[in-house]
Specification:
Helices cover about 65% and strands about 5% of the residues. It contains 10 helices and 3 strands; from the N terminus they run E-H-H-E-E-H-H-H-H-H-H-H-H. It folds into 2 domains: about 10-50, Winged helix-like DNA-binding domain superfamily/Winged helix DNA-binding domain (Arc Repressor Mutant, subunit A); about 55-205, GntR ligand-binding domain-like (Four Helix Bundle (Hemerythrin (Met), subunit A)), CATH 1.20.120.530. Helix 1 packs across helix 2 (about 25-40) and helix 3 (about 55-80) runs antiparallel to helix 9. Strands 1-3-2 form a 3-stranded antiparallel β-sheet. With about 210 residues, it is mainly alpha-helical.
């Protein structure tokens, strides 16, 4: 509701009204508000209650930059160990993603691609680092972020090409840049709802230009 703009920045949140709107009890709503407070989306004040704060554009950019660094390392590891058969499997999933008719199918295939990537990298520490950095938009990402699907296809396509070229540097770069561009897309999406100021984010201005594969 916050990300869609239904709950605007500065708006007071009344748990009982939200519970009625969602058709649930007040307990999970309160738990959800506590989680949103911890993630920086809302704020509790003793004399005001809970209200929507949104999140700074630079915080989003930093979040995706950190995820990009970790995913880049995973990509590098995959480039070092992937067999031709492994690359074929990833490429087949990517082809299915390109032809997916709906967002749900696309998202499921994306999870399949990333799951295979994690298996090939076989690095519990790097995967744990991803798990502790919660997604800014954990659900319905490709539905809510209009540029997300095209950005994901472009980045994963660059990654598969890097694997075929046996370039660990290019694989690292492809996934790192993918996250930077998704961060910029998230900032733009949330700016449309008034939750962030897109001009405060440096995601698009600091991204390193893509390097050619050699």
């Amino acid at each position: 509701m916050i990300m869609s703009g239904e709950l605007a920045k500065g708006q007071r949140l009344r748990p009982e009204e939200i519970a009625d709107d969602l058709g649930v009890s007040r307990i999970p709503v309160r738990e959800g508000l506590i989680a949103l407070d911890q993630e920086g989306w809302i704020k509790f004040e003793s004399n005001r209650g809970a209200y929507v704060t949104g999140i700074e554009g630079d915080a989003i950019s930093d979040h995706y930059e950190l995820r990009g660094l970790v995913l880049g390392l995973l990509g590098r590891r995959v480039a070092e160990v992937a067999t031709p058969s492994d690359i074929d499997v990833l490429n087949a999933v990517l082809r299915r993603m390109r032809s997916a008719d709906d967002v749900e199918t696309f998202a499921a295939l994306n999870d399949q691609f990333l799951g295979r990537l994690y298996e090939l990298a076989s690095s519990p520490r790097l995967i744990a680092a991803l798990l502790v950095s919660n997604e800014i938009i954990p659900d319905r990402f490709f539905e809510l972020v209009s540029a997300g699907r095209a950005t994901q296809l472009s980045g994963l396509g660059a990654f598969v090409r890097a694997l075929k070229a046996r370039s660990a540097d290019a694989a690292d770069h492809a996934l790192h840049q993918l996250q930077s561009r998704q961060g910029a897309a998230v900032v733009a999406t949330l700016a449309d709802t008034g939750l962030v100021d897109a001009t405060s984010s440096t995601a698009s201005s600091t991204a390193t230009p893509p390097r050619p594969y050699t």
